[in-house]
Amino acid sequence: MATPPVLPDGSTIGQYRTISMVGQGGFGTVYKAQNQNMPDWIRAIKELHFSDASALKRFQQEAQLLMAINHKNIPRIYDYIVEKNRHYIIMDWIEGHTLSRVAYLRQLTENELVAVGLECTSALMYLHTRPQPIFHRDIKPENLMFVWGAAFHGWLMDLGIAKVAGTLQQKRSVVGTRNYSSPQQQRGEEPEAGDDIFGLGASWYEVMAPFNLPWDKRVIPFPYERLDGPAEVAATLDRYPQFSQTFRNIVLKCLAYNRSDRFSSAADLYSALESLSAPLDPLAFTPPPPIVPPPAGPSASFDTPVNKQQGWNPLRPPTK
Length: 320
Prior knowledge:
Number of helices: 9
Strand content: 15-25%
Number of strands: 11
Domain Protein kinase: 16-276
Keywords: ATP-binding, Kinase, Nucleotide-binding, Transferase
CATH topology of the largest domain: Transferase(Phosphotransferase), domain 1
Structural class: alpha+beta
Radius of gyration: 19 Å
Helix content: 25-40%
CATH class of the largest domain: Mainly Alpha
Largest sheet: 6 strands, antiparallel
Number of domains: 2
Oligomer: single chain
CATH architecture of the largest domain: Orthogonal Bundle
Pfam families: Pkinase
CATH superfamily of the largest domain: Transferase(Phosphotransferase) domain 1
Strand order of the largest sheet: 1-2-3-4-6-5
GO molecular function, one term: ATP binding
Region (Disordered): 284-320
C-alpha cells in the first residue's frame, strides 16, 4: 500500500485541525493538532501506513483494545478515525525529550538510564499482563520520551504497530526497526515479552556509547545471528566503565540471543533496576535547545552547523 502524501498545515481530521507535521517514519506520519471545539486540547494524530490489507485488518481488529489502555507511562489513544481511506489515531500530545535527541547532545548517566528504564518497564508490565497481552514491538530511543520538571516522568511512545496476543497476524510478518528488534522478531516469529525487553536493551546499548560516535558504531550489529554478534556487544559494554558492572550485566541480559536467556518478564527486569535506582535532581537536567526548522524549498536540509550543534545527525541512516 502506497504511503499517502503529507497533509498541509490546517487540514481537518474529524474535529481536529492540524498545526504541523512533526515526524514521519515507515509506519506512520505524526501531526500536532488542535481540537476545533476545545482549542486548549492539543493532540497528536498519527496517520498509519499499512504495508498491506492484512496489516490494516489486524489493526482494525485491535483498535478498541489499544484505546482501552490506561497507564501513567503510556499516552492515551482516544479515537480511531477513517477519512478518505486514510487511517488516523488520536493520542495525547506529549511535550518532552526523546532519549535519542538527548543522547546525541551529551552522554547520559546511569541514573538517568535507570530512571527511563523503570518508567518504560512499568509500562511493559502493564501491557504484557493484560487479559490479552500487548507487545509493543518497536522500542527504540525515538520512542522513549521523558519530561523532567519538578519530577521525572517517562513515556513509552507509539503503540501504532503493537501486537495483541491471540489476534490475527500474517504468517512470518516482520515489523519493527532493524538494530532494535530481537533475532526472533526479525525472523517473523510470534511476539513475546522478551522481544520488548530486547528492544529496551538495544536502546540502552546505543545511548551508553559516547555521544559523538558514528551511529553505526553505537547500535546492535546486524544481523545479530552472526556468531560474533553477542560477543561483540559484551566486549563493547566492557569499554564503558562509567556504567556499573551491575547495570552493564542487566543490559547484556536484555540482549541475550535466546529469549530464554533474557529476563523472564518485565517485572523481573523492573526488580533488577530498582536496586540501582536513586533520586534524580531536577536542577541537574539542561533541556536540549529548540530545533531550528529547515529552510523552505527543494534544497532544504538539516545539515547545517546550527542543527548539528543541536543534535541533528545527518549521517544517521533511516531507522526503518
